[in-house]
Amino acid sequence: MTPSPVSDLGGFLKEQRQQAQLSLRQLAERSGISNPYLSQIERGLKKPSGEILQALAKGLRISAEQLYVHAGLLDADPSGGERSALDVRTAIRADPLLTDRQRGVLLDLYASFVDDEPMRSS
Amino acid sequence: MTPSPVSDLGGFLKEQRQQAQLSLRQLAERSGISNPYLSQIERGLKKPSGEILQALAKGLRISAEQLYVHAGLLDADPSGGERSALDVRTAIRADPLLTDRQRGVLLDLYASFVDDEPMRSS
DNA sequence: GCATCTTGCTAACTGCAGCAAGCATACTGT
DNA sequence: ACAGTATGCTTGCTGCAGTTAGCAAGATGC
Questions:
Q1: Which of A5, A31, B5, B14 sits at a 20 to 30 Å CA gap from B29?
Q2: Distance (Å, rounded) from C-alpha A39 to C-alpha A14?
Q3: Which pLDDT score is estimated for B109?
Q4: What contacts B26, CB < 8 A, 6 or more positions away?
């Protein structure tokens, strides 16, 4: 975990907590986690799960996504060339108007256009 | 964890894996996790961390956000079904990895699956 | 037929997330 | 002064995430 401001979850948590004028114990109680554990997270000694991050976001009255970004679970800005490839696949797979077979055909065709490795043929 | 399709991570993972025509071991290897663990996740016996979900998304070539939604770490996109059709078209049009010709082929194919009227060629 | 490989799973194990109990220090009220 | 409270942290513990070693069954090639 690099100590850069963007990815420093603990530092960000401490900053948000202080901005909300909450003690470590108050935030821990509001979030439903133990205060020693919160202390360890803020000091970068422990690495919390997504559920703990959700609980902390709730206690801080901020979005969980913000904490996921600092924890490295989400990208800050989703734009970018490589992300677009994932969007097409994601959109096809999520489309309720397509049958499974149609979905497979579209995905295969897309893969043949974009990938070096097409999907395995049955 | 309710067994509804929206929140059933294991079922969703298995479905995506089968759609991608990967064996359990192939996906585990592509994702960099152990195959018994993947088996346990698919059967709902274990609850993976965000990092494992990221790795699985990478192995499946889908967005991690989709898996977070199924794992209950993110809310699903609040827009409705009609939006899905726009998403696939939008995603294809915006994809920088596709040539104009490939884009046209994909859009026409999609339209033939979903619409009665194929896209008019420009 | 047999040998080999693939597949999904079981069982035992290790490391760490997250907790409870409690410490040391600072602050407040009498 | 002292007692009580608040604060952030230390320590030891438990449960579970995630792994390795290996099993049973099915598939494949000779």
A1: B5
A2: 9
A3: 87
A4: none
The closest alpha carbon to A49, from B35, B37, B45, B73, belongs to: B73
Q: In this complex, which of B49, B50, B95 lies closest to A85 when CB atoms are compared?
A: B95
Count other Cβ atoms within 10 Å, centred on residue A111.
17
| pLDDT at residue A115, as a whole number | 67
**Minimum CA–C1' distance nucleotide for B25:** C7
**Interface residues 55-84 of B with strand D (CB < 7 Å):** none
Q: Report the alpha-carbon distance of residue B116 to residue A76 in Å, rounded.
A: 39
Contact B62, A90 (CB under 8 A): yes
User: How is residue A61 annotated by DSSP?
Assistant: T
Q: Does the beta-carbon distance from A98 to B87 stay under 8 Å?
A: no
pLDDT tens figures, A59-70 = 998 989 889 999
- Spell out the CATH class of B9-71: mainly alpha
The residue type found at B65 is E
- Asked if A50 and B49 come within 8 Å (Cβ–Cβ), the reply is yes
Residue B93 and residue A99: Cα distance in Å, rounded?
Answer: 22
